[in-house]
């Protein structure tokens, strides 16, 4: 038997699920998974339980699109996975449902916009890196150790009495960072 299963989420403890719960019940959802979790949080246990409960022919219903996905690309991915499993999707507020041809069209327009957004971000990132290189800058993190510090460390490590771990602590870096920047091949033991 096909089911309409609801998913409701609020971000903080001081928010309430009542509005979402009522809307989902009115939409014919007899089973509703509820949780309090930030949309930024990748780990949403109730959403995972909800997805495990869905079967071919069922429909996942949410009150609003932003209750399901952390971002538009994330939302598109979730709905695509549902569609591959034969599960419909419906958002009550936006009046989007993927069980009809028109609903699928609207959702695929969203998917195209998400891909367009990713492409724009990628293009801006590449343009920014190219502009930085043209100004003589390179991307990435600043080195943990400056040239002067590397020279000092090399001098210190010439002394066989000085341990790599002691030097690393003194400069506030890991031994691995020292090995990388100073060229120490293997740790020395007392």
Automatic annotation (TrEMBL):
Q: Which UniProt keywords apply?
A: DNA integration, DNA invertase, DNA recombination, DNA-binding
Q: Name one GO molecular function term.
A: DNA binding
Tell me where the transmembrane regions lie: none
In terms of InterPro entries, this protein maps to: Homeodomain-like_sf, Recombinase_CS, Resolv_N, Resolvase-like_N_sf, Resolvase_HTH_dom, SSR_resolvase
Q: Name one GO biological process term.
A: DNA integration
Task: List the residue ranges forming a coiled coil, or say none.
Answer: none
Asked whether the keyword Nucleotidyltransferase is assigned, the reply is no
Name the residues annotated as catalytic in the UniProt entry. 11 (o-(5'-phospho-dna)-serine intermediate)
Chain ranges of the Resolvase/invertase-type recombinase catalytic domain = 3-136
One short Pfam name that applies is: HTH_7
- What family is it from? Belongs to the site-specific recombinase resolvase family.
According to UniProt, the name of this protein is: DNA-invertase hin
């Amino acid at each position: 038997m096909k089911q309409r299963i609801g998913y409701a989420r609020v971000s903080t403890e001081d928010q309430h699920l009542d509005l979402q719960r009522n809307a989902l019940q009115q939409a014919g959802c007899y089973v509703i998974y509820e949780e309090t979790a930030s949309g930024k949080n990748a780990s949403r246990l109730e959403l995972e339980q909800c997805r495990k409960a869905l079967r071919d022919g069922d429909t996942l219903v949410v009150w609003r699109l932003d209750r399901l996905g952390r971002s538009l690309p994330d939302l598109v991915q979730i709905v695509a996975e549902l569609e591959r499993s034969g599960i419909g999707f419906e958002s009550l507020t936006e009046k989007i449902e993927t069980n009809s041809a028109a609903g699928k069209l609207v959702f695929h327009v969203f998917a195209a916009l998400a891909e367009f957004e990713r492409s724009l971000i990628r293009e801006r990132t590449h343009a920014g890196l190219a502009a930085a290189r043209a100004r003589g800058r390179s991307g990435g993190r600043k080195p943990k150790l400056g040239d002067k510090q590397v020279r000092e460390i090399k001098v210190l490590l010439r002394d066989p009495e000085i341990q790599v771990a002691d030097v690393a602590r003194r400069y506030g870096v890991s031994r691995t960072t020292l090995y990388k920047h100073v060229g120490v091949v293997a740790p020395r033991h007392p």
